[in-house]
Amino acid sequence: MGGVFLNIIKCLIRRSARFQSASSGDISNIGWLITPAIDLDAQDGESLRFKTSNSLADSSYMEVFYADDWDGTEAGVTAATWRILTDAYVVKDTDSFAEWFSSGNVDLSCISGTIHIAFKYTGSGQSTFDGVYELDDISVDFVE
Q: How many C-alpha atoms does 74 have within 13 Å on its Cβ side?
């Protein structure tokens, strides 16, 4: 049986978020970190930025998605329609070790309505060590 856990960002995080499922004993580990609702109709020219780091990712990986139909519940995570933000750069297992990698500016201006942004960690399934990803400095900026 795999483990799924959910964290919702409630305020500005002053520390980085870390996904680490080492020695959990689960066959599969999936973790979600999901932002509060973001109203993209309230302003123009929105973009997402964040930084990621990993240490010994060991074939685990992180992806960035958005959904306009998530109901805010843990049970609703798998029912929502999550669309990948392909322009967001997330550190890869094959990257040379560095403290942090920038996502770049991820254009959200072509999306409308109210959305949630999700960072999904998927472990490699190794029984003794399943990799570590860190996430920091998440911001959604807009043109004033």
A: 7
